[in-house]
Amino acid sequence: MVSRVDERPPKITPNVLNGTECGRIKSPDVSLIGRRVVHDEHFGTIRYVGGLPGSTCQWLGVDWDNPSRGRHDGNYRGVQYFHASTATSGSFVRPEKVSLGTSLEEALVYRYVLCAECQLSASLNPSETSSVDKDRADPRRMLFQPTDSPGRLSALMGASLDPDSLEYCGMSNESERPIRIELFTTPANSQDPVQHRSCGPQGAEAVLKYLRTATFTLVPVYRALRGLPSPEKASLWPQLGGTLGHYLPNLTELDLSGCLVSRWKEVAEIGIQLPWLRSLNLSSNHLRLPLFLASPSGGAETGDAEQTLRVKYDLDTHPNDEKLFSQAFPNVCCLVLVRSLFLDWPGLLRIIKWMPSLKSLTVAYNQLGDLPTNLDVDTVHAFRRLVELDLTATGTNELGYLFSILGPSTVLDTLLLSQNPIAAFPELPVSPEAVHSDGPFAPSIWFQALTTLNMKSTAFTNWHPIKQLLRLHKLEQLTFSDCPVLEDLTIETARQELIARLPHVSCINRIQVCPDERRGAELDYLKRYGAIWRSSGGAPTGTGPGLVDNKNVITMSSDFAQEHPVFVKLCSKWGVPDDGESKEEWKESEGT
């Protein structure tokens, strides 16, 4: 354990988690509608800006993410000023009571440069704590020790630095009980016994130049500091705005999930400073795309319509800024937009065109519906450059057009379609020559690089999708469960069916298939369907239109052959099942 005793007065550091000066609302106007705000680490969306009866001040109508933070649905004294998402998530607040958030630059210093004492003292704002808590939150009265998690420290706060006092936790006096808190900070900083030369903005360049991944999940970041022509300055950032690239020469992954970013223009202003950025996570944000109106409504008679538009769209970005978007993400190859409010296919197709290097796209848990038809050539090419596509829980229903766009791709490796109401699986095309020679195992000319496919919780009622997967010879991993076709089977039997029906798939439902498990599944499959095969006219030997392989000549009805395309291969591998024959007898006769 490393202890510090520093007799300097505690530094005053802004609490980034409640917003900083750059997020202060100075002149409330209609452009704030749709913006995100933070108060006491709770997030909300501004849906109304204006006056209220009996008041001469401007008020903000806020729809809080946590419904318990509000009081009503936007109705005040019989007038519906805005529509909250629930009956209790709305409230009116004064502009000075909330903040738009903090800048990315200040969040970088707060999270990755500040020492543990300053970070903790900032998060425990003395003005909001009791006198006892103020004393305990004094950074000079804390112990710090590294934890098992990289980049984290464990802070013990107590009324004394005496180890005996800190270790004794059974006292009735609550003020003497130590509190353990984990902080995200640089472990090296915690080793510095007294000096704080590298703590704060003065240490930004030395620390941030090595940063490759930056994560700000649920931190109220809402934009970067403004650069030229009117650059901003912030107390936690060593230079003026517009200098992210200088301090982050190695940053390739940026996670802004669950932040307060509400306009794509602000994302682009970050991206333009970091052209080497490769991975961008913007999940769980209320991001609005620019909507360029010929004559934006501003009159009182159309105020309600404009207010509704502003919640969903950015009406303040100029059309000339479209060039900024197309230049801001030249090397972004991985984009994550899980649970992104307002995301739809037209908007997503627009975003994709801004990212010429995009290889991995995750848009799970957005109600997109089916891919629009008649895509332009550039969009089709963008989809066929993807290596990974995650459409989990997007409301996808029809696969025909989607597969016609993705199928010809020679690079698509992973396709995730789980939790969608998909009931029909398209026929995968094969070359005529392959059909004649390989039958149901003929390789498809589509999805030739696909190795991973997820189709959990879909609406398939038969085995047709699984039979089509026999044509995907590169397929290695399949997730297929919670589907109607499996509902009458136990979990164990369903897994055996999948293993036996897909001889080339090595991982099913995230569990590797070992040789012994495959052997047992295939033997059980033959036993399960052997009687049906015989009753439908199947026989071990025969003449005429039989199915022939290297070891066996068997006959079967066309219906059985269509329903069980792997049966003949399994007979070749394990022998033809006789009436009443047991698995033990098959094992003994293996190879005969």
Major β-sheet strand ordering: 12-14-15-16-17-18-19-20-21-22-23
Overall spatial form: elongated
Q: How many separate helices?
A: 20
Compute the number of structural domains: 4
CATH third-tier fold name of the largest domain: Leucine-rich repeat, LRR (right-handed beta-alpha superhelix)
Return the structural class.
alpha/beta
Residues in helix, %? 25-40%
What do the pLDDT scores average to? 84
Strand percentage lies at: 5-15%
Assign the CATH architecture of the largest domain.
Alpha-Beta Horseshoe
Span of the ends, CA to CA: 69 Å
What do we call the CATH homologous superfamily of the largest domain?
Ribonuclease Inhibitor
Question: Which regions are unreliable across 5 or more consecutive residues at pLDDT < 50?
Answer: 1-10, 126-137, 147-182, 187-194, 295-302, 543-551, 582-592
Q: How many E strands?
A: 25
Q: Roughly how many Å is the radius of gyration?
A: 31 Å
Subcellular location: Cytoplasm
InterPro entries: CAP-Gly_dom_sf (IPR036859), CAP-Gly_domain (IPR000938), Leu-rich_rpt (IPR001611), LRR_dom_sf (IPR032675)
Pfam families: CAP_GLY, LRR_6
Keywords: Chaperone, Cytoplasm, Leucine-rich repeat, Repeat
